[in-house]
Design brief:
The chain is an alpha/beta fold. 52% of the residues lie in helices and 12% in strands. Bound molecules: beta-D-glucopyranose.
Length: 418
Amino acid sequence: MILNTLKKASLAALATGVLSFTASAGEVEVLHWWTSGGEAKSVAVLKQLLEKDGHTWKDFAVAGGGGESAMTVLKSRVVSGKPPTAAQIKGPSIQEWGDEGVVANLDSVANAAGWDELLPKVVSDVMKYDGNYVAVPVNVHRVNWMWVNPEVFEKAGAKIPSTWDGFVEAAEKIKAAGFIPVAHGGQAWQDSTTFESLALAIGGSQFYNDAFVKLDPKALNSPTMVKVFEALRTVKKYTDKDAPGRDWNLATAMVIQGKAAMQFMGDWAKGEFTAAGKKPGTDYICMAFPGTRGKFTFNIDSFVMFDVGGGDAKKAQDAMARTIMEPKFQEIFNLNKGSIPARLNMPRDKFDICAHQSMDEFVGSSKTGDLVPSMAHGMSTFAAVQGAIYDTVTAFYNSDMSAQEAAQKLVSAVQSSM
Ligand code: BGC
């Protein structure tokens, strides 16, 4: 499903034993898309820890929030028989890469450290292919956040919204006061990030799961989905004319600098506030996306390890897997990244109020059926289906297509991608 050509090429390469690897002894080549200020600081933690152990880090960064470009580059590398040591791959896609027969088995590292006991089951299940660990999680991001500049709200005399109606009321006031209500970057993955939060707010968790996990046509094309599309158009009304194409971290900078009042984005945005020396609760405020308090859209970043044969390359790969799960990495990385550790029972004291809220709501939402996988960040469906949803949402966002038509198109796009 990833790519038919990939399957053929990789199987042929395996059969003839011509897979070659760029990683030399003790080297890890790591593909990721963490290139913003906060992201780069975070990934540097892993590099430093591995270098301290004598391994060499070969950085393979492919810019582009959401990771679409990174995935395209990865496919061509694997097709040519030169997979990196590890690549940032998430969610159901891990299964697709498992199907290709190109992933490494990390069970010896996982068993020695007891990963099954250290990870919530909702996380460890995703990391396994055919019962074996093939990936290792670095964090848990929450997607349904709103990042607020309280000063802008104050200047506009607006109340920070916790409901959808409250959002519209506040956005009107902020606009009238001459500020940009919503900092947005018009890129498909960002449009869908807002869209999925609206679906959760307006339809609730059951509707969200029916639409984006079960891909139920009755939910995809429903009066509720029509409302979700209408709400997306309303959000667009409160963005600025320079939004098209803008990178997400530049949108975050608009909130940091007081040009915009809020941004709807996962908590990697917090990494930008942290890198800029800003403190939550005073300089900025983190709140659940209006109407989604107690609900949690999860996005787990993980590294899939590729089959690098044995020897020093494998030793370095195992060291990377081991290091990622160690408390030291899980703490420092996540303090920088804005996410929370994937590993259970970590000390909370160094984490801020936003992380505490995330930790509490991760546990709380899992008990009420409100812990849902992010569609926009590749946790709820395969990449092809996600791509079909992206295309429909973005086509709607950038045209005057009616919300009814968009909901109808969503069903046909999803069905033809399966
Ligand atoms: C990833 C994050 C990353 C964000 C922006 C998300 O899909 O999970 O780690 O920071 O995209 O690039």
